[in-house]
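ARCHIVE CARD
CATEGORY: sequence design from structure
SOURCE FIELD: tokenized fold
FIELD CONTENT:
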């Protein structure tokens, strides 16, 4: 009989292996002599005396590697990169920072200062490449209000990531208090030509939420920020200095569409939803599963998402009773922090499935494609119909672990945590649910 947990792991790892960021950049950016084509934009590199690069996010190093291959060998450039880990092969022209995630650290702060200083020296003979990927909101940070300290910003970020709000709501707040978000990096390099290349971990159509949209016009407003603070009861969780700044009337609105800074700015998505679903679907089908992809649960509460996707799995099995079936989903579920444990939304999703799949021939895996799940060292977790029995034998209670936000500890004790280390990419969270044929399930239960 097929080990469904191992099959789920195999599909996840094959999906990760298919995501090649440098190769994608070489495929999407076409250079003919000095002419560089990127989506609808055609840039003549010979028109520029300086090239500057800003690489922000979990895929910063891989994106830099891809860009360097594309640029002419005699092309001189300089830049700044902030990522959660150091590069395997540092580039001599790049200044590197190891930023904090999900909470900014001192390197996040210093990276933001260095980026703004570099951009302030750009002019109309400068070409700036912005290489953006998920995690950028914390990896580069500096407040608009100079009286807000790093500790203040850390308190704000900590409150936001733990409040259960969807990413676009969290980033609505971040953009309005930051000097490097919500289009402000484009305005900082006002006269330069700007090209943003992005690897998206946000829903399609909400690219302004990626890394808090540092190079895109911001469709949200200060009023929207206040609505988020009220809705998610954040009033007593932010530092007093923040509210003194708000009360002073000093906060400025983020730049909007039509701002002249965006006239020479180009934005292209290199990798997104389809680049996750296609290899995942291929891996599952290649393993013999009838497979469907579903992205309906983005930003859903974790319990509701679990119920919905398990129902989709059962419906798919009812249509194909003699075949292995799989449902693949992406996106971020909402899992507010309710305790001081170790874990993240991916392990929490799997934990919420443990009792629902008990004694069934079903496996559930959820993991971050970046290799990081919340404050844990894991990417996520995997469970099957035997997990609940094994947990009880080990003295583990899924309800207690969920309440304490301690899903990683629960699955690590069972050797079911998924540990990849930092993967160097960041599309979206990945989930695969697998069920065996009905006959196999019936014989097991008998």
């Amino acid at each position: 009989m097929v080990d469904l947990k191992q099959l789920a792991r195999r599909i996840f790892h094959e999906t990760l292996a298919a995501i090649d960021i440098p190769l994608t950049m070489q495929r999407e950016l076409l250079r003919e002599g000095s002419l560089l084509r990127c989506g609808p934009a055609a840039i003549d590199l010979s028109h520029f005396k300086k090239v500057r690069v800003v690489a922000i996010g979990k895929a910063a190093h891989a994106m830099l590697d891809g860009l360097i291959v594309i640029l002419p060998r005699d092309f001189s450039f300089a830049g700044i990169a902030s990522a959660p880990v150091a590069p395997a092969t540092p580039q001599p022209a790049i200044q590197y920072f190891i930023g904090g995630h999900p909470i900014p650290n001192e390197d996040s702060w210093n990276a933001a200062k260095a980026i703004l200083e570099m951009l302030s020296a750009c002019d109309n003979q400068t070409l700036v490449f912005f290489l953006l990927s998920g995690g950028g909101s914390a990896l580069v940070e500096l407040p608009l209000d100079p009286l807000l300290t790093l500790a203040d910003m850390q308190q704000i970020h900590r409150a936001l990531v733990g409040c259960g709000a969807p990413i676009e709501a969290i980033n609505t707040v971040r953009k309005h208090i930051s000097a490097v978000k919500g289009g402000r990096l484009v305005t900082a390099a006002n006269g330069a030509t700007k090209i943003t290349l992005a690897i998206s971990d946000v829903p399609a159509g909400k690219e302004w939420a990626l890394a808090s949209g540092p190079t895109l016009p911001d469709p949200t407003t200060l009023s929207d920020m206040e609505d988020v603070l009220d809705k998610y009861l954040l009033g007593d969780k932010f530092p007093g200095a923040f509210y003194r700044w708000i009360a002073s009337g000093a906060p400025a609105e983020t730049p909007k569409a039509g701002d002249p800074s965006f006239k020479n700015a180009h934005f292209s998505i290199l990798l997104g939803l389809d680049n996750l679903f296609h290899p995942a679907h291929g891996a599952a089908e290649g393993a013999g599963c009838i497979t469907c992809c579903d992205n309906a649960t983005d930003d859903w509460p974790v319990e509701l998402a679990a119920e919905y996707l398990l129902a989709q799995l059962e419906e798919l099995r009812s249509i194909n009773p003699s075949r292995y079936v799989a449902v693949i989903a992406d996106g971020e579920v909402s899992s507010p922090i309710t305790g001081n444990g170790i874990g993240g939304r991916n392990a929490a999703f799997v934990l919420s499935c443990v009792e629902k799949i008990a004694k069934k021939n079903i496996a559930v895996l959820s993991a971050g494609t970046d290799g990081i799940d919340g404050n844990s060292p894991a990417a996520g977790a995997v469970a099957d119909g035997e997990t609940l029995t094994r947990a009880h034998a080990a003295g583990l209670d899924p309800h207690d672990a969920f309440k304490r936000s301690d899903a990683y500890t629960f699955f690590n004790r069972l050797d079911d945590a998924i540990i990849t280390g930092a993967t160097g990419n960041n599309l979206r969270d990945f989930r695969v649910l697998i069920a065996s044929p009905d006959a196999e399930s019936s014989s097991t239960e008998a």
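CARD ANNOTATION: Residues 302-319 form the longest helix (18 residues). The CA atoms of residues 51 and 225 lie 35 Å apart.
SHELF: design records, drawer C
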